[in-house]
Amino acid sequence: SFGRDACSEMSIDGLCQCAPIMSEYEIICPANAENPTFRLTIQPKDYVQIMCNLTDTTDYQQLPKKLRIGEVDRVQMRRCMLPGHTPIASILDYLGIVSPTTLIFESDNLGMNITRQHLDRLHGLKRFRFTTRRLTHIPANLLTDMRNLSHLELRANIEEMPSHLFDDLENLESIEFGSNKLRQMPRGIFGKMPKLKQLNLWSNQLHNLTKHDFEGATSVLGIDIHDNGIEQLPHDVFAHLTNVTDINLSANLFRSLPQGLFDHNKHLNEVRLMNNRVPLATLPSRLFANQPELQILRLRAELQSLPGDLFEHSTQITNISLGDNLLKTLPATLLEHQVNLLSLDLSNNRLTHLPDSLFAHTTNLTDLRLEDNLLTGISGDIFSNLGNLVTLVMSRNRLRTIDSRAFVSTNGLRHLHLDHNDIDLQQPLLDIMLQTQINSPFGYMHGLLTLNLRNNSIIFVYNDWKNTMLQLRELDLSYNNISSLGYEDLAFLSQNRLHVNMTHNKIRRIALPEDVHLGEGYNNNLVHVDLNDNPLVCDCTILWFIQLVRGVHKPQYSRQFKLRTDRLVCSQPNVLEGTPVRQIEPQTLICPLDFSDDPRERKCPRGCNCHVRTYDKALVINCHSGNLTHVPRLPNLHKNMQLMELHLENNTLLRLPSANTPGYESVTSLHLAGNNLTSIDVDQLPTNLTHLDISWNHLQMLNATVLGFLNRTMKWRSVKLSGNPWMCDCTAKPLLLFTQDNFERIGDRNEMMCVNAEIPTRMVELSTNDICPAEKGV
C-alpha cells in the first residue's frame, strides 16, 4: 500500500507534491499550486479523497502517474467532473486503487449526464452515493451492472424514478432517495429487492401516497417520508409494509390522520410524528392500539387533546414523547396499559391539571418530564405508584403547593428538578418557629442525588435536606427568599461531595458561632456552599463568618464546609456598601444597641448613637458634637460586653462626673477631645480606663495623682494630650517626666506645646531644667 517511500519518490519528480500529515498523506497536483487541480488525501488501506478543481475532463491528465495506492475501503470524489465517456473506474485504475467497496461522488459540475457506462467495472461496490444538484433524470439502466450494491444513495433533484431502476439490485438493503423532487413512485418498483430493509424518501414531493407505492416492499423495516408536504394519508397506505418497524411521518402538513392507519403493521417499534407544519389538533381513537411490539412514540404536532384509548393494549411501549404540544390535560385512562413505560416526556405543553390516576399502572416509569407547563400543585396521590422513578423534571411551571405525601412512594428518585416555580413549602397552619422544625415533602427520598429548587420562594433550609438526604450531591437553592443563615443551616451530613448553591437569595445575616464541637458523627465530607450575590448586612452578627472567610479564624466546624464568597459584598451599612466581605476589617462590624424606636425602651442617651462591636466585645457610645454640657446618663454594660467606649468629642463639657457614676464607671475608652475641661481629678477617671483622649481642651496641668493613674492603666499610644495650653513651669515637672517616661503610650507627644513661653515650644524638646529655672544652679 501507499507509504512514505512512495510519497518521497513522487515529490522528487516535481510534477506533484506529497507530504505526510499525521497518519495521512496529502498529494497536490501540480506541485506548489495555489489552487491545485487535484488534492488527494490518502489513509492507507482505509480511504482516498479526491478533491477536484477542473475546467475540462482533459485536466485528469494532471493526476500523478505511476501511483499505486493499493487496497482501500472507501473512495470519495468531490467537485469532480464525470470523465467524459470513460468509466469512473478508469480513474481509480490510473491511481492504482484496488477493490473499493464504497464510492462517494459529490459534484455540481458533472460536465454531462451520468450513464451506465460511467459505472462500468464497479460491480464490486457495496455502497454508492451520488450527490449533485444538476441532475433531474436518470437512465433506467444506470444501475444494471451494480448487482452487489447493498446501500444506494441518490440525491440529485430527481423528479421521476424509472420503473425498472432497481430490477437488478437483488442485494440492495438500503435506499436513500431523500432531498430529491419525486412526485410519485412507479408501481411495483420495489418488488425485486427481497433484502430491502430501509427506504428513505424524505424531502421529496410525494403528496399523494397510496398503498400501491409500496407494493412488493414487504421486507422493508424502516420507512422515512418526512418533509414531503403530505396533507392526508389513506387508511391503508402502509398495508403492504407488513414487516415495517420504524415509520417517520414528521414535518408534513397533516391536519388529521385516518383511523386504523397502522392496522396492518403489527411489528411497529417506533413511530415519529414531529414538527408537523400545521396544527394537528388531535389523533384518532386507538391509533396506536393493539401494537404488540411498539416501544417508542415521538409525537410533536401542536396536539390539543388525546383520546383515552390512544395506546390501548400496547403494553410494550417504553418511551413516549409528547413534548412541545398544546395539551391542557390528559385522559385518566391514557396510560392504563403502559405497564412497561420507562420514559414519558410531557414538557412544554399547557397542562394545568393531571388526573391522580394517570400513572396508576406505569409502575416501571423511570424518567418523567413535565417542565414548561402550567401546573400549580402536586397532589398526594399522583406519584404514589412511581416507586421506580429516577428523574422527575417539573421546572418552569406555576407550582405553589406540594402535598406532604407527594413523594412518600418515590423512594427511588435520584434527580428532582422543581426550579422556576413559586414553591415556598410553608404550612399555613403552623407558626414560623414550627415551620423551621418540620421536614419538607422531600424527606422520604433518602437516595436523592440532585434537588433543584432554583428560583422559587423558599425561606428556610429544611432539616431533611441536611440530616436524611445522605446521598445528596447537588442542592440548588439560588434565587429564593432565604434571608438568614446559621451554622445549623450549613451542617449537611451528606456522604457525597455536596454542592449547595445559595446565590441570589435575600441573605442579610450569616451568624456563625465561634466554634462547635463536631463530635463522632462528623463524616469528613466537605460541603461546598456558594453564598455569592446576596445583600449581606455587614454588622456585628457576622463577625465569625468574616473571620472564617478571611482565614483568620478556623474553628473545628470549618472542616465541614467550604464557602464561596468571591462575589459577596456588603449591602449595608452605607460606609461598607459594595465592599467585598474578604476585605472587611472585623473591628468595623457593629450593631445598634437599640432596635426599638420607642423612647421608653431606648437605652442609648438622647442625642447619642450607641452600637455594639463584637470583635472586642465593646459597647460604643458616640455623643460626638451633641452640644452637651455634661456627661449624659449612660447604660450599664451588659454581662457579655467587656469594654465601653465613650465618645464626647466636640461638646462643651466643663467637668467630668464621679468615676463611680452608674454606667460611667464601666467606661474603658474615654474620648474628650474638643471640650472645655480645665481640670481632671483621679476620682473622675473610671477604674478600668485604658484609653484617654483629652486633647484640645483648656487643661494647663495634670496633677501627680492623675499621672500616676495613667501610668498604671494606659496602653500603647492610648493617651492623647495635645492641643491644651500646657504651663511649662515647675508645677509641670511631673507631666514632663510622664511624657518622657511614657512616650510610647502618648500618641500625640510630638504635638504637645508649652504656651507660657514667649514662643510656643514643643514639650518634647524640653528638659526639667528648662522649665524649672530655680534648679539650674544646683
TrEMBL record:
InterPro entries: Cys-rich_flank_reg_C (IPR000483), Leu-rich_rpt (IPR001611), Leu-rich_rpt_typical-subtyp (IPR003591), LRR_dom_sf (IPR032675), LRR_TM_domain-containing (IPR050541), LRRNT (IPR000372). GO terms for cellular component: cell periphery. Residues 603-640 form the LRRNT domain. Keywords: Leucine-rich repeat, Repeat, Signal. It comes from the Eukaryota. Residues 534-592, 724-773 form the LRRCT domain. Pfam families: LRR_1, LRR_8, LRRCT, LRRNT. This is RT10576p. It comes from Drosophila melanogaster.
